[in-house]
Amino acid sequence: MASAIRRRRTLTAYTFLAPSLLGMVIFFVFPLIMTVVYSFTAFDLSNPPRWNNFANWKFLFGGDPLIGQAALNTLWFVAILVPVRIAGAMLVAWALTRARRSSGALRTVYYLPALVPPVASTIAFVFLLNPATGPVNRALAAVGIEGPGWFTDPSWSKPALVMLGLWVLGDIMVIFLAALLDVPTEQYEAAELDGANGVQRFRHITLPNMAPVLLFALITGVIAALQYFTEPAVASATAMGKSSVGAGTSQLLGWPDGSTLTYGQLLYSKAFGANLFGYASAMAVVLFLVAGVTTAVLLRRFSSFTPEVAS
Amino acid sequence: MRSRRALLVVPALVSLALATAACSGSPSDGPTAAASAPPTVSGTIQFWHFFTDREADVIQGVVDDFEAANPGVKVVVKSGQDDQKMRQAISAGQPIDVGLSYSTDQVGPLCSSGDFTDLASFIERDKVDLTQIPDTVLGYTEYKGKRCTMPALADVYGLYYNKKLLADAGYTAPPKTLAELTDMAVKLTTFKADGSIKTLGFMPLLGYYENAEAHWAPSADAQWLNEDGTSAISGSPGWTTLLEWQKDLIAKLGGYDKLAKFQAGLGEEFSAQNDFQTGRVAMNLDGEYRTAFIDDQAEDLDYGTAPFPSAQGFESTYGGGYITGNIVGIGKGSTNPEAAWAFVKYLTTNTDAQVKLSNGLKNVPTMHDAIASPDLEVSPQFQTFLDIFENEHSATTPPSGIGAEYQTIFGTHTAKWQSGKETDLPAMLKTVDQEIDAAVQLQAGS
Known about the structure:
A: 2 strands; B: ten-stranded mixed β-sheet; 10 strands; MetI-like (chain A)
């Protein structure tokens, strides 16, 4: 009798879960397995894939002349863009909690750029930072500073993209703001009574309380940086004076001098430009593994940083 | 027990994936022509193209003419569809009857994959006169002998020059050789007080607007690929000639950094701020479509057009230039191939349709009869491009199974060459060969 009830409950649970499970299998598990299978084949999207004796994997780890540069650029964005955005969002959120007047208006002002479509914000930034005609370099020149080439200089193109990332930090700032406002004030009062200074209060109260939110921002930020595509692609094309992305001259990819070539752009170019869908699948598998391992490491590393463990 | 069941799910899914992979795609060559041409065609066809706004209206005008001439046919037009989207849709089995692509680089993938059907049986049956189309154009619309596309219109590249700026510098004619171009570019370049470039005679950096390896290649008869699809770059002396000429001109104009700084301030290519239209550069390589932009955005500009100058040792090739263009084909999933072919034939071999498209889009018609038609609107500047198109020394980029990847690979190296990071040109060209050959092998499945 008990087992019949358990069976019925299990069946009911699976019935309710079925739509999402089906979605997972169709749109995630199955494509993932297919991508792994295609990574061992020569595939042109139209004809049946042909086993190619690990040629894609050999090319990936020893033949592709651009993969190293694309991987390094992408890791640069993971290492710099993500922490800078998190630190910037934290600072803005903290400042907003201290605002005594117009806090609602200020929150709106800082959040609004996050609503601008990435293509539009990137184009706007390229115009603002145009080294010859942009207002930023003109302002710098007015105070006697020769501005850099920004998106047209290989040394400055990535920092310029970080500046763009900072401008649109409203998405994580608003989550940090909510988390900061959620920290119990009595904890700060107790710490003050115990003589804790500002840094100690931040380290021992604010950070542990925000740990889950920080972890979320870190993991989603890392995954987004690993897949970074739109902003560098649009910045390259716009800074070159082109109005299209994808089509065009051979110099477009990662311009200037490959400095903005990301792993995601290279993957797209290999699939839809070079017709190497099998090789692009191998690249996608590596990207998936790196994202998966990074997420696992971060979860494990930060497990000791949750409020429960830290307190 | 539960874990054992879970263990069974993984091989089951993998088996399903392998089975699906084996069945992916369709190796069929798509529809072929009926034994005899039907007296009339009827039914609905789906036509995908990439044009938008005003240009889409021009295409619609020709579609309307076709429907009027073939009352039984309804053409459902899907505008604004780029090549990637169209290929994905065809591969996924969507019944796209006719597709128009903007890139001849896609001919290799479209033909080799079978996404566009082989048109040979239709062409043979209807005795289509292919001698109406120049050999270069015939070359870029087929892949390894398989004609899966027909040329709709062409883009032709030549030299634009600002007559006033040239006259001020004492020149009455455009350069015919790269040596003359160098001398004139240096003389026409002016500098600001701080030493930066104010106006430029000619920009030698690749990547600037239409400055691309492919567009320079005909000037020195530079070759891309061998018959077997492998790289011919290091074995083609034209590339060495062109890249050394470029290096020399970069040095004479003040060096890479100075030019890169000038380039950083360029105006968007298709806006009124285009550097040639504003007088920021005196001479520029561009396509015939620029004439329409100048008419629209800079009507007071006094300019001329000429074939791009030839390199030393290749003077006899003067008059030719780079040609590319739009291509049109029948999707492998076409459900109405006879009506689709009738439409493709109308777009690509009907003189009136070609003239109407050319007048509307300001591209070069791909048929001799259309070029000679009195109805074709031809300005003196546009005439230059018609002449280049008909010139025997004009050339294009060859179709390849790896699309434009061979140009991309070359471009990553020429970017380093022009900035001075690569200095050993022969070694660089050998490396380019190796990298292209590796990609070709990978695509071939070996």
